[in-house]
Amino acid sequence: MIALPDGLDTPALVVDVDVMEQNIRSMAEALAARGVALRPHFKTPKIVEVARRQLAAGAAGLTCATIGEAEVLADAGITDVFIAYPVWASEPKAARLRALAERIDLSVGVDSVAGAGALAGARAGVRALVEVDCGNRRTGAAPEEAGVVAAAGADAGLDVAGVFTHGGQSYAPGEEPKRKAAEAEVAALDLAVRSLADRGLAAATVSAGSTPTAVLSARGVVTEERPGTYVFGDRMQLVIGSCTPDDIAAVVATTVVSTAVPGQFVLDAGAKTLAKDGAPWLAGHGAVMGYPDAVITRLFDHHAVCELSGGAPGPAAGEVVGVVPNHICPVVNLAAEVVVVRDGAEIDRWPVDARALNH
Amino acid sequence: MIALPDGLDTPALVVDVDVMEQNIRSMAEALAARGVALRPHFKTPKIVEVARRQLAAGAAGLTCATIGEAEVLADAGITDVFIAYPVWASEPKAARLRALAERIDLSVGVDSVAGAGALAGARAGVRALVEVDCGNRRTGAAPEEAGVVAAAGADAGLDVAGVFTHGGQSYAPGEEPKRKAAEAEVAALDLAVRSLADRGLAAATVSAGSTPTAVLSARGVVTEERPGTYVFGDRMQLVIGSCTPDDIAAVVATTVVSTAVPGQFVLDAGAKTLAKDGAPWLAGHGAVMGYPDAVITRLFDHHAVCELSGGAPGPAAGEVVGVVPNHICPVVNLAAEVVVVRDGAEIDRWPVDARALNH
User: Does the structure's ipTM exceed the value 0.95?
Assistant: First the structure.
């Protein structure tokens, strides 16, 4: 687990650069061994320095959720970006896409005939990838309808370059959900590729991805994977078995500000720092390092209330502890910067370049 | 309800300035009529322009949760600030308190003998207010122990100026929880004042507050109230009966990006925009304006999945809708700026000055 430097102002988001580098290398090597490209999702780190290190380790390009994230990458000189999201390309987003596509190689998701029409109407000069649903039931056309969307886009003048999916149903404990979600990704993409082929369209890019499934679905028709969370890890990935405690590269340093109410202690990291992401299979709002019996039962804007079961001793008021967040993506987005450490000593600070650029 | 301007880039946080001004006036007048000071909580708006308008309407000063928020107010020339939080005053926070107290009139919370000792040790020249717990079970000494904390602080050289509490248990539907929480605030503060008096200490400031209880507990020993959410309102305040639909001054404008999966529509405002705050008595992650049968059942980083019951018609892909957030405080903290509107037309943009300053 990460050792925290002394004297930090809290709450602060701390990143262990060596653990992060190991995560970057491991994923790159695992996918390279399978002959599948890695396009890490920038929505997790939102930090240009992290993206640069992922590219240096062999990533083919970056994935984004928003035009704002892609603009940050373009400003940093990163030139191959896929916005894996069904962007609705009306103004003013259409103008932003046009400006961006003049600067970088840009791909954008579509998941409907109407959306493809809007993107074609934007005349942005982007590549389009058709999103298909593999059981996550969020966005994405039915796989067998991918060709209908692709053909409509192509007829309207879009450069349709392939298909993509996200097996988000992989987020559950145990091996079975991960294996099934990976199978669902491959099967849906296979159907989608055939659906395009039926209309005489080729899928040069066939993209899957989530951290739990990234290695498992790197096979068959799949040409690239888009994991994001793997770079830092988090408590959900720990509990679902997609990382080990040694892979956790980011924790929130927070001070015990109160032990006034008996049976609990209170940290200065609230929902504006830890976020309220959780899951039915995850008790509490984060894991307090060094206090495995503590459960963060209530999270207010600026307070985390931690209850101790069975009379276990808690930290003293004034002590600084680390909390492994349930879900790291929203936590990074809440921070202005991360404190970069090596062997428990601060060596740098990195701004969260794409913080709040969720449009 | 707020009318949204055309052509917004989404997601965007929209504030109707006339509704906000009405909220500012109403609370100021209600407390002035009771002879109780209003010290609005800055953790809700985090926008200097809003704080200035609250002061112009008669507020006695501002409340903050963090030193960072207080620094923003000091930079804006606002000179009377209470950090209603048991700040643990070790370095580097001690140095920040010292620097701040040279610029403004600053009060800081303490809730234990040890915390009072740490604050005294910081030699910051701040006033201390003792926090007591009135049943919220978060922070705060037992009311009858307030004098022990105050006396320890005074002995260590602190200027102990009073007591405060927060009846957060008021957050529940119906009149009864609000009435009981307000009674608990007044009773706890009464006990705390007596506890100080027993040790020969006076409480010049006796401070209560939450938006649901602010007017109800403005009586007896109470000298000031610290509501925050009232300035914008939100869905929780609506459901618990602390505001009406006409009082909602802030909504998230968001675009329907997908209707590909049957029975639902998907918005581009996810957890990084709407936050995941909720309550057992509140279904879903926000209220979709104009579509009362829609429930935001799943909230991902960049997607809100809205399900429609009973075959009610939903919005079309590409349509921009407003979402009333469950809890406005974390939502403002997620935005870089707010779009200020009047009668449905954009008239200004205000930066969220204290965004991410949660330390």
Answer: yes
Which residues lie below 8 Å from residue B359, measured CB to CB, with a gap of 6+? A9, A10, A11, A12, A268, B66, B67, B68
Q: Of the candidates A88, A261, A277, which has its C-beta nearest B257's C-beta?
A: A88
In sequence order, what DSSP letters do the residues of A290-322 get, joined into one string? T-TTEEEEEE-SS-EEEEEGGG---PPTT-EEE
Among residues of chain A, what percentage have pLDDT more than 70? 100
CA atoms of B260 and A165, how far apart (whole Å): 13
pLDDT (tens digit, 9 = 90+) per residue, B285-340?
999 999 999 999 999 999 999 999 877 889 999 999 999 999 999 999 999 999 99
Residue A145 DSSP one-character state: G
A6 touches chain B (CB under 8 A): no
State how far the Cα of A94 lies from the Cα of A96, in Å rounded to an integer.
5
A135 Cβ under 8 Å from any chain B Cβ? no
For residue A133, the chain B residues in CB contact (below 8 A) are 260-261
Which residues of chain A make contact with B140, given a CB cutoff of 8 A? Answer: 258, 260-261
Of the candidates A118, A139, A329, which has its C-beta nearest B260's C-beta? Answer: A139
Q: Over the stretch A254-283, which tens digit does the pLDDT of each residue have?
A: 999 999 999 999 999 999 999 999 999 999
Q: Is the pTM of this model over 0.90?
A: yes
Name the token pair of B235.
């869905």
B168 neighbourhood in chain A, CB within 8 Å: 300
Looking at beta carbons, which residues of chain A come within 8 Å of B144? none
Residues of chain B with pLDDT under 50: none
Residue of B nearest to A336 (CA): B356
